[in-house]
Description:
This protein is about 20% helix and about 25% strand. By secondary structure, the protein is α+β, with helices and mostly antiparallel strands.
Amino acid sequence: xxxxxxxxxxxxxxxxxxxxxxxxxxxxxxxxxxxxxxxxxxxxxxxxxxxxxxxxxxxxxxxxxxxxxxxxxxxxxxxxxxxxxx
Length: 86
């Protein structure tokens, strides 16, 4: 983990403001992008949200099918296995 040297105070509602430089560096768009929040020991980790495949958690080549995120590899595997039922 790399320190940015930036500190921010938490307001009374529990919010912090991400500096413009960080939002730009991570290509975070206002009112569009989401952040995932993780904890590890005494750390809070923020990561730009990318929808992941419901089967393998891959974020590569993900499409939405019937409201679920599925990657191309898993979709192909499902298609191949579905041929067994014909």
